[in-house]
Amino acid sequence: MALISFVVPVHRVQGYLRECLDSLLGQAFDDVEVIAVDDCSPDASPEILTGYAGRDPRVRLVRLTGNVGLGPARNVGLDRATGEYVWFVDGDDWLAPGCLPVVAERLRATRPDVLLVDHVRVHWNDSVTRSALRDVYPKPVGAETFRLRDRPEVVGLLHTAWNKVVRREFLVSLGLRFASGWYEDVSFSYPVLLAAERIGLLDRVCVNYRQRRTGAITRTPGDRHFDVFAQWERVFRFLADHPAARGAGELHPVLFERMVWHYLTVLGNGARIAPQVRAAFFDRIVADHERWRPPGGYRMPDGVEGIKHRLVATGRWRTFSALRGAHRTGLTVRRTARTARRRGAPVLLGAARLTRDAALLAGYRAELRRPVDPTLALYAAYWYRGYACNPAAIHAAARRLAPHVRGVWIVRRDRLDSLPPGLEYVVAGTAAYFRALGRARWLVNNVNFPDHVRKRPGTVHVQTHHGTPVKVMGLDQRRYPLGAPGMDFAALLRRVDRWDYSISSNSFSTQMWERAYPAAYTTLEVGYPRNDRLVNATADEIAEIRAGLGAGPGERVVLYAPTHREHLPGYHPPFDPHRLLDALGPAGRLLVRSHYFHDREPQGASGWPSDDPRVTDVSGYDPVEDLYLAADVLVTDYSSAMFDYAVLDRPIVVYAPDREAYRLARGVYFDVTEEPPGAVATTFAGLLDVFRSGTVDSAAATGDRQRFRARFCVWDDGHAAERVVRRVFLGEPGGDEPGDVR
């Protein structure tokens, strides 16, 4: 029997579940079991759970055939738990490193019925808020156990289940179950505290309580917030019906005050209770105030909170509503004043100097007042570098499947020569550019449009992305400031909020985009449109591309394409093209391609000049898909190129000489040297040996590639662009399975 059984209910937490499970299983204490309850989650969470259960015998997976909700899912886990203690942890939260040995030591030393642990709120913007423990207990709490009547102030701590480690036999003998509905923690936590003979407090942060930007109940408006009344009724019924709690009559006033506080907190959150039902919610508070008010009264809070309690007691909704409105107005005025002081006059003076830009933006705002053009789709890629990537593939498919849609591209003036003949375009920064931005119905990009772009009602923004993420992205970059110099994360989120669709190439990407870019967009997990060309290219087309690059039929072409190091400008990994050619032999040919960011550097140099005719710098060659088709082997490091190239099922070599430094400075979602698409080298000498020894083509490397393809390339069937066009431009359903096209 394990000391602790973790019960983890899982539903729509794919972006956070790995962090949760790793925090439970990766502690320096392994006397645990994890009961993971898949509450019929519609995302990739079941796939993640299957992987963990297959790798770690401490993980037991329970799959439900229908979605039952958080409370009943916890009950299922409780029924299967065998540990001495049960700890309910939500799938989007995670434990603090090193906390578990401390918790275990306290449990074994004091044998409490319930141990309360501290927590912090970790907000989506990476700020952290401490719990109320220090407010309730400004002095050290000590290790001794107690009953609730001895320390009734414990009621002032958060009423969640996940900050309580409960002795399983005590919980089973009590017969307590989680109720259905929202706010189910209320009718669990308070009865547990009321009935416990031995309560312990651990003044150590153990739980990171994630405050999600989207997807959390507290940010979901609706009538289900009225469930809170039924949950509190269960608390007072328990108080009356259980002998273990009946003797604690002095706790009635304490619980009553907490109930009113909780009701007012829910009502005061504008993201929960819609304006049209606030009066009805207030009436329910008044009714429960009359119903459960202690005969001897209760301690009225001081200040504004006390005024609110008195207004509830007298049922004065209009006065309560006016007080709330005045308070919110005051907050707005103070916030506006702070913003004005922070920005100051120089911003206005600077804008006045930029006369031309101001005029263009004024024209853009005028266009925003004109009707949306129902036929115009505006495309862009790589910060207006030209016709490329997923937007180009979608544009080509739309010309075929949705000919009524007029596609226009945005391009930088210095990249006009790269456009294919006959392509309709506007030059970035011109009046025509702003007219198109203001009128387009569809806006498709593989990066974000600039901050001055506004999301109009009736328009559709499609974010295609431009790679499966190895390195951390979006909000996750806050933890790696060296890789995100000068990034404005608040501005990033404002740009993300414009998205209607996020195109995902595979389940892994879907999970990472969800956590890196939390917003209300719809994910289209359909594969990357740009990879359709890799699937559909004919042998004759490939031969023609190779010939154009100077590669003969019998030559083995190796493409070396390292990624960019944001934290190390100008860095190039150790690489000698001549020595690699020696390892390849006389039939070897080498293509070297720098990251597209390097076109900002003089001449866009790859960093490995060579006068050998068998070495070609293809940094300026477009499209990159042609290079993939021409190459027999790809050598890369942390680049998303490996995911695209894997579609071709050809050898891939991971060359990562700065693996650890890159991981620490830039951050990665997974280690490509541990889960590689083929052979791995961490030194240049090792890279040479991969080719000289034949490891590049070994059975082990082939097996790694097949596993990699099964994980990341399932959607690459040659129809990704079609699925996007049918869903976005034509409004057709479907595309839910690979190969699902009309």
TrEMBL record:
Protein name: CDP-glycerol:poly(Glycerophosphate) glycerophosphotransferase
GO biological process: teichoic acid biosynthetic process
Topology versus the membrane: Peripheral membrane protein
Principal subcellular localization: membrane
Domain Glycosyltransferase 2-like positions: 5-136
Keywords: Cell membrane, Membrane, Teichoic acid biosynthesis, Transferase
Compartment(s) where it occurs, according to its Swiss-Prot or TrEMBL record: Cell membrane
Keyword Zinc-finger annotated: no
Gene3D superfamilies: 3.40.50.11820, 3.40.50.12580, Spore Coat Polysaccharide Biosynthesis Protein SpsA, Chain A
Xref: SUPFAM superfamilies: Nucleotide-diphospho-sugar transferases, UDP-Glycosyltransferase/glycogen phosphorylase
A GO cellular-component term linked to this record: plasma membrane
Family: Belongs to the CDP-glycerol glycerophosphotransferase family.
One GO molecular-function entry: CDP-glycerol glycerophosphotransferase activity
